[in-house]
From TrEMBL:
<dbReference type="GO" id="GO:0015920">
    <property type="term" value="P:lipopolysaccharide transport"/>
</dbReference>
<comment type="similarity">
    <text>Belongs to the ABC-2 integral membrane protein family.</text>
</comment>
<keyword id="KW-1003">Cell membrane</keyword>
<feature type="transmembrane region" description="Helical">
    <location>
        <begin position="76"/>
        <end position="97"/>
    </location>
</feature>
<keyword id="KW-0813">Transport</keyword>
<feature type="transmembrane region" description="Helical">
    <location>
        <begin position="242"/>
        <end position="261"/>
    </location>
</feature>
<keyword id="KW-1133">Transmembrane helix</keyword>
<keyword id="KW-0762">Sugar transport</keyword>
<protein>
    <recommendedName>
        <fullName>Transport permease protein</fullName>
    </recommendedName>
</protein>
<feature type="transmembrane region" description="Helical">
    <location>
        <begin position="152"/>
        <end position="173"/>
    </location>
</feature>
<keyword id="KW-0812">Transmembrane</keyword>
<feature type="transmembrane region" description="Helical">
    <location>
        <begin position="117"/>
        <end position="140"/>
    </location>
</feature>
<keyword id="KW-0972">Capsule biogenesis/degradation</keyword>
<dbReference type="InterPro" id="IPR013525">
    <property type="entry name" value="ABC2_TM"/>
</dbReference>
<feature type="domain" description="ABC transmembrane type-2">
    <location>
        <begin position="37"/>
        <end position="263"/>
    </location>
</feature>
<dbReference type="Pfam" id="PF01061">
    <property type="entry name" value="ABC2_membrane"/>
</dbReference>
<dbReference type="InterPro" id="IPR000412">
    <property type="entry name" value="ABC_2_transport"/>
</dbReference>
Length: 271
C-alpha cells in the first residue's frame, strides 16, 4: 500500500512528463509509419466510416435524434460523429491494452524504467486523436448548423469519467495480457459488442423501455449522452449521472493502478 501511495498517477506523470510526451509522440508516429498518407488516415478513416454509418442509419433505417433541430443528414452525421469520437478513445485504449507490455519487453527488463507511464502514453495518443476529430466536428457544426454552444465549456469535466475508465482498464488489461495471451481476442469481441450496445447510432429512446436499464449498465452510455448533449445540442449535462460515472470510473482507475503495481514484478519472469 505504501508503494501504491508513493507512486500515485499524478506525481508519476509530473515526474516523467517529458518521457510521457515522447511516448505519446512515438505512438502517434508509429501508428501510420510507412503509409503514404501518414497522419491523414486519422482524419480519413473516421470520415469514411461516418459516411457509411450516416447512409445506413439515416437513409435506410430512417433514424432520428431526440433533440435534433433539423432532419438534415448533416446534423445526423455530426451527432453520429460525436458518439464515434467518444467511443474511439475507449476502443483505442482497451483494444491495445492486452499487448501493451508484451510489445515492449525491453522496458520490462529495465529496472529503472517506469512501466506505469505506458498506459498513460496510450491514453494520451487516443486523446490527441479525439481532439483532432473534435476539431473536424466543430468546423462541421459551424458550417452546417451555424452555431457553437457555450455548453462546450463543460467538455473537460465530461471527459474525466471517460479518461479514468479507459486508463483504469488499460492498467488492468495490460497486466492481465502478460499472463493471458488470449485476452487480446476476447477484448476485441467485447469492444465490438459494446460498440453496438452504446447509443452511438441511435437514441436511447429507440430502445424498448423495458430494455433501457440493460443499456445503462454500459458505463459508456451515460458518458456518450452527456458529451453529445453539450457538444452537439448545447444542453446542460446531467450532473447526477456524471457524478456516478466519475465515482465508478475513479474506483476502476484506483483498482487498476493498484493491480498493475502489484503484478508488474512478475512481468519479467513471463517475458
Amino acid at each position: 500500500m505504501n508503494d501504491f501511495l508513493s507512486k500515485n498517477i499524478i506525481s508519476l506523470i509530473i515526474k516523467h512528463r517529458e518521457l510521457v510526451m515522447q511516448f505519446i509522440k512515438r505512438e502517434l508516429i508509429t501508428k501510420y509509419k510507412g503509409s503514404f498518407l501518414g497522419r491523414f488516415w486519422s482524419v480519413i478513416t473516421p470520415l469514411m466510416m461516418l459516411t457509411i454509418y450516416t447512409y445506413v442509419f439515416s437513409v435506410i433505417f430512417k433514424g432520428k435524434w431526440d433533440f435534433a433541430a433539423t432532419s438534415s443528414k448533416q446534423e445526423f452525421a455530426i451527432t453520429l460523429f460525436c458518439g464515434m469520437l467518444v467511443f474511439a478513445v475507449f476502443s483505442e485504449c482497451v483494444t491495445k491494452a492486452p499487448t501493451l507490455i508484451t510489445n515492449n519487453p525491453n522496458y520490462v527488463k529495465k529496472v529503472v524504467f517506469p512501466l506505469e507511464i505506458l498506459p498513460v502514453s496510450l491514453l494520451g495518443s487516443a486523446v490527441v486523436n479525439f481532439l483532432i476529430g473534435l476539431s473536424i466536428l466543430l468546423v462541421g457544426k459551424i458550417i452546417f448548423l451555424h452555431n457553437i454552444s457555450w455548453s462546450l465549456l463543460y467538455l473537460p469535466l465530461m471527459l474525466l469519467p471517460l479518461i479514468f475508465l479507459s486508463l483504469g482498464l488499460v492498467y488492468i488489461f495490460s497486466s492481465l495480457g502478460v499472463f493471458l495471451r488470449d485476452l487480446e481476442h476476447s477484448i476485441n469481441i467485447i469492444v465490438q459488442a459494446l460498440y453496438m450496445l452504446t447509443p452511438i447510432f441511435y437514441p436511447v429512446t429507440a430502445v424498448p423501455e423495458n430494455l433501457r436499464g440493460i443499456l445503462y449498465i454500459n458505463p459508456l452510455t451515460g458518458i456518450v449522452e452527456n458529451i453529445r448533449n453539450i457538444v452537439v445540442w448545447g444542453i446542460q449535462p446531467n450532473f447526477i449521472n456524471w457524478s456516478i460515472q466519475l465515482i465508478v470510473s475513479l474506483l476502476i482507475l484506483i483498482v487498476g493502478y493498484w493491480w498493475f503495481l502489484r503484478t508488474r514484478k512478475g512481468f519479467a519472469d513471463v517475458l
